[in-house]
């Protein structure tokens, strides 16, 4: 059984975790940077990179101590090698390279999106390939057919903003603070979702893709009229997102040989009303629905360690010359 240390630093969470290939999470340590970025209303790449550099080594020490292990007990060291804010990615990857070099253990360069894509298998031993994955994060909104480790077929993607980005921008417009997704969800919970007329971009379109930029602009216009409560705009926005996701997923499902499970991953998968809609959709289609627990949806080290464990199990390791990638499609 392999023991993998995984490091994550591609956005504003610094994280280190240790996972065993039998799906036991031995430890996971995480430090958010919300306080560093709040005053700017978004993640500042340079500040994020500096914070990762300060936080990563102590977090690795914590992860090892919490698991009662030393570096010698670890079989391989995995790190996010992209895509993401490049300064942060470099911090995690260089740390992993140094640990690999010092211990003589192999390095595994993990695609952050693969970390999200495989994370549901960490908590669900019955989730077999293939599955249909809705990957919704701050940078992505994609439907993928996950055929196996390293074997992903992208079925659709956003033509403009990612869903998480739309949540973050909406939060900023409405003055709900940062991070935006959870703030919009909280406000939406006490708002009337039918009070503010908002568009459903690409709903009913004869193409599989997603679009959210028009929705965000409509939120801005609605807010500027001064006619609506912030909570009602948040709720109406969230419902519009849910309608769009539902419509686009069913469009694709109508046209493919649907796999047995519908799976959601990425930070936006932490949104409870979105999870409920997906659960309903899966039931309508006779599909299993799998969603990671909320802590595993947003960026964390365990998903990187797990993707590392899956890759290590297939004999996939990387050289110490692996270069960090700001862009890296699955
Ligand atoms: O996967 P993630 O942690 O980082 C990226 O790889 O992008 O996703 C972060 C995104 C942010 O846009 C954040 O606002 C969104 O996920 N998010 C949410 C919720 N929690 C996080 N969006 C909607 N509802 C939430 N509860
Ligand atoms: Zn992510």
TrEMBL record:
Substrate binds at residues 135-139, 168, 181, 185, 271. Binds 1 Fe(2+) ion per subunit. InterPro entries: ATPase_NBD, Gcp-like_dom, KAE1/TsaD, TsaD. SUPFAM superfamilies: Actin-like ATPase domain. The keyword Phosphoprotein does not apply. GO terms for biological process: tRNA threonylcarbamoyladenosine modification. It is found in: Cytoplasm. Required for the formation of a threonylcarbamoyl group on adenosine at position 37 (t(6)A37) in tRNAs that read codons beginning with adenine. Is involved in the transfer of the threonylcarbamoyl moiety of threonylcarbamoyl-AMP (TC-AMP) to the N6 group of A37, together with TsaE and TsaB. TsaD likely plays a direct catalytic role in this reaction. Fe cation binds at residues 112, 116, 299. It catalyses: L-threonylcarbamoyladenylate + adenosine(37) in tRNA = N(6)-L-threonylcarbamoyladenosine(37) in tRNA + AMP + H(+). Residues 24-306 form the Gcp-like domain. Keywords: Acyltransferase, Cytoplasm, Iron, Metal-binding, Transferase, tRNA processing. One of its GO terms (cellular component) is cytoplasm. This is tRNA N6-adenosine threonylcarbamoyltransferase. Its main location: cytoplasm. Its cofactor is Fe(2+). Gene3D superfamilies: 3.30.420.40. The gene is tsaD. It is an enzyme of class 2 (transferase). Its EC number is 2.3.1.234. One of its GO terms (molecular function) is tRNA N(6)-L-threonylcarbamoyladenine synthase activity. Belongs to the KAE1 / TsaD family. The keyword Transmembrane does not apply.
């Amino acid at each position: 059984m392999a023991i993998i240390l995984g490091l994550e630093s591609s956005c504003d969470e610094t994280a280190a975790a240790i996972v065993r290939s039998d799906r036991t999470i031995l430890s996971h340590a995480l430090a958010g940077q919300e306080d560093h970025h709040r005053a700017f209303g978004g993640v500042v790449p340079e500040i994020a990179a500096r914070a990762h550099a300060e936080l990563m080594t102590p977090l690795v020490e914590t992860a090892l101590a919490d698991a009662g292990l030393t570096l010698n007990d670890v079989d391989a060291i995995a790190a996010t090698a992209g895509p993401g804010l490049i300064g942060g990615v470099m911090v995690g990857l260089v740390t992993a390279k140094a640990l690999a070099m010092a211990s003589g253990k192999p390095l595994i360069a993990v695609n952050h999106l693969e970390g999200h894509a495989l994370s549901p298998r960490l908590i669900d031993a019955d989730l077999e390939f293939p599955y249909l994955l809705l990957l919704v994060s701050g940078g992505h909104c994609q439907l993928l057919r996950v055929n196996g480790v390293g074997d992903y077929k992208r079925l659709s993607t956003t033509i403009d903003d990612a869903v998480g980005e739309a949540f973050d921008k909406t939060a900023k417009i409405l003055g709900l603070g940062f991070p935006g997704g959870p703030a919009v969800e909280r406000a939406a919970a006490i708002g009337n979702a039918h009070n503010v007329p908002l568009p459903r971009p690409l709903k009913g379109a004869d193409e599989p893709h997603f679009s959210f930029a028009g929705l965000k602009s409509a939120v801005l216009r609605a807010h500027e009229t001064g006619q609506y409560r912030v909570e009602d705009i948040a709720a109406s926005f969230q419902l519009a997102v849910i309608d769009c996701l539902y419509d686009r997923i069913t469009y694709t499902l109508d046209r493919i040989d649907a796999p047995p499970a519908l799976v959601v991953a990425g930070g936006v998968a932490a949104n409870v009303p979105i999870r409920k809609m997906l659960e309903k959709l899966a039931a309508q289609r006779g599909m299993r629905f799998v969603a990671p627990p909320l802590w595993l949806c947003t960026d964390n080290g365990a998903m990187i360690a797990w993707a590392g464990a899956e890759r290590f199990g297939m004999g996939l390791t990387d050289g110490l010359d692996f270069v960090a990638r700001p862009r890296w499609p699955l």
